[in-house]
Design brief:
mainly alpha; Farnesyl Diphosphate Synthase; 70% helix
């Protein structure tokens, strides 16, 4: 079992996302004067395990349903191609996913003994999003919703909670951009996979709404990111400095929004897909930094 093959099904380059989410949650705890680096580090370990699980189990599912044999791969969508190229077996991909999931569960159970039962709703939704995304959630038109929760809002809220011991309004406000951006991260990547997803039994917003309407949906959620930052600052849930986190939207959203409004029936340009990923990561990083400052 080669390390590059494991990294392939784990989609290693995309594991930066949980790093930025834990950074936002820890930034919220720091702003409240209660951050704990040990808890933050353990939360990051658990989130990395969860993300590996989601990615590897999704790769295994797409191989089994033959989706991976029909996708037009881009650097940001269409899977890694590890299983179709026979660099790793289906069974070992599943084992990789389960190992990552078990790591996430172990960390969650540990924090459950520290924080208490108030953590259960976050852990339950997270487990659902991790283990049932590919076989179930992605087939009933709620895959994007659970992606936004499981790899967006909940990690931010949960990371703050394991450091402060409670749900914090500040963390919930800081989680809104993360939810919207991870929702959109998946949504935009579904456009290149439209044909393959239809053949493989996926049911997502692109297939439900059609490309033009789904593109408008993407644009709406993208615009809501800076709007949510402005609103939560105006309502005094986030500090004024958090408005700096709007800058990535101003710089990076024009490319994907131009495609969404003008050419949604055409393939999504690679620069637009790339800008979508960088927008997500950089907004989280800037927001985290403003909270630390």
């Amino acid at each position: 079992m080669s390390v590059p093959a494991i990294a392939g099904v784990a989609r290693a380059p995309f594991l930066l996302l949980p790093v930025t989410l834990v950074a936002v949650g820890t930034g919220a705890a720091a702003y409240l004067g209660q951050h704990d680096w040990a808890s933050a580090g353990l939360a990051l370990l658990g989130m990395l395990g969860v993300h590996v699980a989601v990615n590897a189990l999704n790769e295994a599912s797409d191989y089994k349903t033959r989706i991976d044999f029909h996708t037009e791969r881009t650097p940001f969508s269409g899977g890694s191609g590890t299983l179709p190229a026979e660099r790793l077996s289906y069974g070992k991909a599943v084992a990789t996913g389960l190992a990552g999931g078990m790591l996430g569960i172990a960390v969650g159970v540990y924090f459950l003994t520290i924080v208490g039962t108030k953590l259960i709703p976050l852990l339950a939704v997270g487990a659902l999003a991790t283990f049932f995304y590919s076989p179930f959630l992605a087939r009933i038109y709620v895959g994007e919703l659970f992606a936004g929760l499981g790899l967006g809002a909940l990690p931010v809220i949960g990371t703050t909670m394991v450091q402060t011991g409670d749900y914090e309004a500040l963390a919930i406000a800081a989680s809104l951009p993360a939810f919207l951006m991870t929702f959109n991260l998946l949504l935009l990547n579904e456009f290149p996979d439209e044909t393959a997803d239809r053949k493989g039994g996926r049911r997502n917003l692109v297939l439900l709404l059609g490309r033009p309407k789904a593109a408008v949906f993407y644009a709406l959620f993208a615009i809501l990111v800076p709007v949510s930052l402005i609103a939560t600052v105006a309502l005094d849930y986030l500090p004024t400095l958090a408005l700096v986190a709007i800058l990535p939207s101003l710089i990076l959203l024009p490319k994907p929004l131009a495609w969404a409004f003008k050419q949604p029936r055409q393939p999504v340009p690679i620069p637009a897909l790339g800008a979508n990923v960088i927008w997500n990561l950089s907004t989280n990083v800037v927001l985290a930094l403003t909270l630390f400052v």
